Structures are given as structure tokens and as C-alpha cells.
Amino acid sequence: MSGSQTPRAAVVVRTKDRPEFLRRAIGSIAAQSLAAWEAVIVNDGGDPDGVDGIVAEWPDAVRDRIRVVHSPESRGRWVSANAGVLATTAPYLVLHDDDDSWHPDFLRRGVEYLDDRPERGGVVSRIEIVWEENRDGALVETGREMFQEHLPAPLLGDTLLFNRYVPIGFLYRRALHEELGLYDERLPVVGDWSFNLKVLVRGALEYLGDTPYAYWHQRAAASGLDGNSVIAASEDHVKHDALIRDQALREYIQEHGPGLALYLTKFVDQRFVEVENGIRDEIRRSSLVGRVYRKVRNRLR
Q: I need a surface site. Which of 47, 171, 180, 289 has the fewest CB within 10 A?
């Protein structure tokens, strides 16, 4: 990073042949009220001239803070994420997916929070989902909704079920990678969930207030280059979610034995059977009431 300012926050952007998304992402970063940022764009096997051309569109004040890492072939989301992390120097890190965006105060508010709370490993912004469609080459917003608005904090117990915050909303200390390791490069998807679990086991996290400073853009019907992995690669998410759980269970049983796991497996199964039987009984009662009602109604006619 040129100039006198030492970067406080490093932004890692992974991209591949999505010029309009990348252009919007750089605009989101450049608009931050925190000036002391650096960014690394990791081109995961896409057209290098296209990426370099988009970066060149920006004035020197923005372009001088951006470094581009070109990979000659696609190596995957988490190899690219780690390459970006290792190419930065700032004490705070965030992954900015190329199709997402921020409120201009995201970095400033996040850096202020972590500066004031050295005991915290990171901070999570409230996240707003932005629904959009590609109409004749233009991205058109179709609606917005809050993501996980009901949660009081990004809790470990909730995150064990599924990922409760996505990369665009998580600013964290670089030191977490020294302590917990880099992102798991064996995973094609859910590498952020795997890392988030380790972070939450380490210590609690908080939300950065009630304002959503992070915007998670989603396109429900999109596939191919325009697709969101959580939608377009949903089968991969299901598969690797299951594999992570299976590995964690294996490690637990190897250390503690199968007792608790055996008990909980039967306990949960029994509760499901009880619920299913309750639903069937309710349906039978409703059906009986319906038959009686119809008989009475017919006699009164």
C-alpha cells in the first residue's frame, strides 16, 4: 500500500470471470469511510486481462491499495481465500465475495470495535440479503430481507446447526489464523462455516449493533457464472455439511467413546417418533370430528 497510511484492514476478494460483480465489489471497498485499507483480488483462473482492466478503471488513490494475484488455473474458493490472506499484512481481515457489498461504514465501525475490545477475536455485522436478477446484462434489485434477525448474537449453539453469518459480515483478527489455521482447502464449499465453528469454540462474538452494514447479494434463479454457491451448489453444501459433522463425531468418539453419541441418537429418534405419532393422532381426531360434523350437517338439511 502506497502512501503514509499503514493499512488497518485487509480485504480479500475472490473472483473468476465476473466483471460486473468485481466492478461493484471494488466500488464497495473504495467507498469505505475508513481510508486505511488494503485489498487483494485473487483471480481464480479467470481472464487476467479482464481483472486488470477493471482495476485500471479506478483512480490512483484506489488502485494503489489493490494487489491482484492471478492463478493460471482454478484452484477453488478456499485455496484462493488463503492465497489472499497470505498476501496481506493488516491486523484485521475480511473476505469480500465479489458479488456482495457493504455499507460505507462497515470497515470503520468494525475496526473501531476491535480496537476497543482486544479480547474479541472478531465482530459480525448484521447482514441484509439483497435479492437481485440479471436482466439483459444489468443487475436489478428485487427485494431485501434481514438474515437471522431474531438471533441476539452469533452463538456457537446456533451455528452448530448451520452457518449464521457469511464472510461479507465478519471482520476478524489476522491472529486467528495463526492460532486456528487457515481455511480448509479440502472443502469446495462451507469453508467459512468450518472456520466460524473454530472461532466460536475459541470465544464469543457479538454483533456490530442492529444496523446491517453487510449486504449479501443473492440471485435465486441464477446458475453458472452468476450463481450463488449456497443456491447453485446446494448439493455440495449438503454433502460437505454431512462430512464435517461425521468427522467431528468420529473425533469425539475416538476420544470419549460412543456412550453419549449412542444415547443421543436413540433419544432424538424417540422424540421424532413421538412427534410423528402425535401428528398422526391429531390427524385422526380431526378426521373423526370432520365426519361427525358432516353427519350432523346432513341431518339438519
A: 289
